[in-house]
Amino acid sequence: MRHLLLILIVLTVGISATADDYGYMQFTGSDGTTQTISTTGLKITFANGYAKATSDGGSLSIALDGLASMQFSTEGTDPEYSIYDVNRDGNVNVADVNYVLDLVLNEEYESQADVNNDGAVNVADVNAILNYILANAS
After folding, report:
1. pLDDT digits over 44-71, tens only?
2. Model pTM?
3. Closest by alpha carbon to 86, among 110, 56, 59?
């Protein structure tokens, strides 16, 4: 019996891992799209039907009804940009709102502008960016 217990302890210690061992949290949508965020300083909150993940690498807001899975990953996708920074200039501001509005008016789709991950670029994405700007205004 002691021998079995010793083996279980060794196996448990030998296979333990932490979030820092992976580097990223990966969110996979029900449509198969994936988004990642750094695990450094990672905090995940759930409110109003959304999961909001914030870390030293930015933030993501994902609708829970479109979320298929969450798991740790060793690879990230654009970890240097916030999901709301759709024009990829390093800032989340009215330029991102204008970028999405241009896509909406021209009936065009770009995946980075689909910030709510619903498969369309529309006024809901504009609202998400505006809400982010207002929530993070200094």
Report:
1. 888 778 788 877 767 777 778 888 888 8
2. 0.46
3. 110
Contacts of 20 (CB under 8 A, 6+ apart): 39, 40
Q: Which residue matches tokens 């960016």?
A: 129
CA distance 106 to 117: 19
Q: Answer whether 61's CB lies under 8 Å from 52's CB.
A: yes
CA 123 to chain centre: 20
Instruction: Give CA torsion, residues 48, 46, 74, 83, to 10 deg.
Output: 40
49: exposed, middle or buried (Cβ count in 10 Å: 0-12, 13-18, 19+)? exposed
CA distances 79 to 4, 24, 66, 84, 90, Å, are 43, 9, 21, 12, 11
